[in-house]
Input
Amino acid sequence: MSEFCGTLDNNYLHVALSDSAVGCLRAACQSGAMPGTVIGIPDDLSHGPLDDLQVRRSYFQNLFIQSGARREEACDILASWRCLMAEAGRIQTREVVVWAGENVSETMFLHMFCDWMHVTDIKLSHVNVSESSDQHYVAMWQPSYLAGICNNARELNNAEREHHSSEYRRLCAEKGVLRRWSAGRVATMQSNFYDDLLLSSCTTDWSVAGRVVGLAMSRCDAHNRLSDLFFASRLAALIENGLIEVQKKTGRLFENNIRMSASSPAHESKAWRG
Output
């Protein structure tokens, strides 16, 4: 969990998801253009269990191991969430500002944060970075732009907070691993939903797995960016099911040469309509 950073003005506590988003917001505060303090967590809520943070932590640790990364590379998500909630409740702040665009991970963050803060009477506001652009992630914006739209923060009334909270509880109850944003709502998807996209990024010629994964990432739509860690888990499943072949296995999945197996149906890039 990163330390607080910003001005000495605790009237505003800015919360965000991912190190990149937090970095942009902190730069805005450090410049003096935006008052307040910034805190966040290094998480990706587009996939992984939701209702048990210990299980969620284990899920990501297993993904790191599966991709060939060291176990200690997986951050302590459980500790990060606990720290975020504790600080949001402890700090004497006039307003908590949640930064979230119209994308799967940050929308989930807004849902989750409202649920975890439902017992407090702290004022919650939301800055939607998607309101005037097709760039839907906080980290896609210059700090100067973020400082400029800070005043666009809109207070969430009780009904809106309850809506976000109920959406989080609904998605928890569905116990899915993968989620997708569409038309303003997050839906639970089958874990293999993006397998065709990954297969269409692979050919019958040998290619390094990192490039195949990178190509699949680049083909995700603007509201549903997915990490290389997620695609590594699906790549491992496709290899296990015999749809993708490995030339010579190494310790790190991304460094292996892979190709579509003879038993795999042909998938052209243009066939993907996700």
